[in-house]
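Morning F.,

Quick status update on the modeling queue. The single chain you submitted on Monday has been processed. Sequence for confirmation:
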Amino acid sequence: MKLTTSPRRWTALTGAGIAAALALTGCSSTPEAEEAPASSITVATNNGDVEVPVEPVRVAALDSTAFETLLAFGIEPVVAPKPLLPSTGFEAWADDAEILDAGSHREPNLEAVSEAAPDLIIGGYRFADYTEDLSKIATTIDIAPGDESEGGYVEGLKAQTLALGKIFDKEEEAEKLVADLEKSTKAAADATNGESVFLASTSVGRVDNAAGRLTRIIEPLDLKDVFAVESGELDETAHHTDQGLAPETVAQANPDWVIVFDRDAATSDEDFTPAQQIFESQAAWAQTTFTTDDQVIYLEPNFYITEGIHAYTRAFDQISAKFAA
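Structure tokens below.
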């Protein structure tokens, strides 16, 4: 199963912007009573401001980048795309028959979403193309991070997390997650010093250039994509092909480091060749710097399917630890 992120325009979301945009609404007061708690808040989303119920009870969780945050907040959805759930850590969601299956973004089951009668739908990312349809079912928000988020994808992760903290009255927990990400990002940035890197993915036994996704990781770091040209566009040799990226092309570029995610590990229900086995079997790479110096970072197996704030925090921890070794 091949997962892709649908292209779309991203509205800039920053931590400061979220804080400003999450103005409380729906408050009322009388001379005889104290001001009542807010029943809703206004959230800045990728599609403009949306009024969202506070602490919604019935939540449709469709955006995979938000899954781990919702789990950490103790939120149990009424419907989720079970084919997109990470293979570990989400067994309770996957096995619970009362949590309906929204299908994947390639074959969505919008009827199941409607049947679940959610108060709030957390859409976006892989489900971004269905925002209009989902909005007819219930209040729908797209606060997923994107490459066009102001400050980049990592800043978008922070904004998403702070927004979810406001919605679910988990602001302290959200701020802690953001602080952890910032600490890990700084440690990784401090550990890097202009080294060249090949951003790779593996699938069905081949290696491809994954700059489209992994550039997000090195944006805040001092690393140079070995297949990037001065204009910032990918070199002709770096494009995906049916055969993958030729091993000789990588050997000739001879990057100092490789950062790789395993697409099959995140998405395949069948036997597959793990990324590490693919890399170690490439005879053309025997004398490369990344091989002789053991400078390959294999991101966690579910990275491709999560890509949320927890996944990025762990990725930066991997990078700082490996560079310091």
